[in-house]
Amino acid sequence: MRQSVITAAALLLAWPINAAAEPRPELQKFRFHEDYRFLRTFSGAPDPFDPIKYVPLDDSGSSSLSFGGSIRERYEYTGNPLFGDDPQDEDGVWLQRANLHGDLYIGRNLRFFGEFSSALSEGRAGGPSPVDENELDVQNAFADISFPVDRVNSFTLRAGRQELQFGTGRLVDVREGANVRRTFDGVRGLVEVANWDLDLLAVRPRRDENGIFDDRTNRDEVLWGVYAAGEPQLLAASGLDLYYLGFRDDRGSFVQAVEDETRHSIGARLSGNRQGWDWNLEAAYQFGTFGDGDIAAWTAASDTGFKFDETLFQPRIGLRANIASGDEDPADDELQTFNPLYPRGNYFSQAAVLGPRNFFNLNPHLNFQITEEFALNTDANFYWRLEKKDGVYSPSGQIIRGPGQSDARYVATGVSVEATWAPLRNVDFTAIYTHLAPGAFIEETGASESVDFIELTARFRF
């Protein structure tokens, strides 16, 4: 297939890279977080891509260009999509995502970053979904103007199209698992002061179309607020995130109705690790208006674990426990359903079936680092709905099942196995299997087939 030919060429090009070379900074999920100006004085082993990773434009090297890109090939097969409600793909779906970016620094205070993305798909029954295909468009295109506050701290004004993620992506995430990553248009102010990084933003999401350079700003939605991340000295071995996020959607959709939605989220996240233990705890409260009614919603999420560093395969055992409010009565004007805004698509598993609204779940998991390059992760997910008069939602907020006449809470049981192999710094492979068995609520409200999901992914970055 056309995707496979391109991937094979990319992997062959990458293979000669010396995996034993002196360690370099890791490749980042957001490529604009990489800064290759370190190559001005780098004395380690060369990389074949160094000539395009750092191109000086003046004698001092303060102005420079950098180029990079990636290609990801993915095969997915889902047996009984959405418990049998969605059409069955005959032979699975082939997905390809290719990116090419350029990074221009002009002196110390001005920067331009641009990135093109192409997402293609084949095999989806009924045609590609909105997150499957976007033939060619601009993924990132922003300018930074930086102002030093003092010798340590700075302020950067960023304007244009840009990807976002806050914390671990529970409320705002780039949606890496999908073939089409999420991005926004707008303005941000990035402030470094003392032990804090502040992010002030006013943005709108991109409205994805599947053609060539036909995306546009989604005028139905807007996101604004401030996100602060720091390491207060009073919290030993812990980081603290504090945030306010405002959100408006002209077409907010819930079991209750489709109405104008204005929502304000106030939250905090505590994360860290010490003596083998690690923790990631987050809580948020939401208020605002939905049509003529008021919003009062909340969530609490946790991921705690212990890693046996001195044991064979360095196992980590952990437990995620999460809860989010649901609507108590769809017949009145008030709305209690939590809105995760722009969350990870794979919030509970790579199958991306269930979303974090009106639910509570327990998610034990066990991870192994078999070798430096190979990791194996396993988990189970037990998922309930919280309020019986509210339904079950997808990660994107679509209503999977309304409450119907069912009094059952239990929605589904999921088990997943994920293997990741990264033989080279810029090449990795992933294999995932997820089985999702319907619970009483699904069985009582419609199709109730078990979902089986298989994913095979190869990725090359430079």
TrEMBL record:
A UniProt-annotated Pfam family: Alginate_exp
Domain of life: Bacteria
InterPro entries cross-referenced by the UniProt entry: Alginate_export_dom (IPR025388)
Record's signal peptide: 1-19
Keywords, in A-Z order: Signal
Domain Alginate export: 65-450
UniProt key word Oxidoreductase: no
Name this protein carries in UniProt: Alginate export family protein
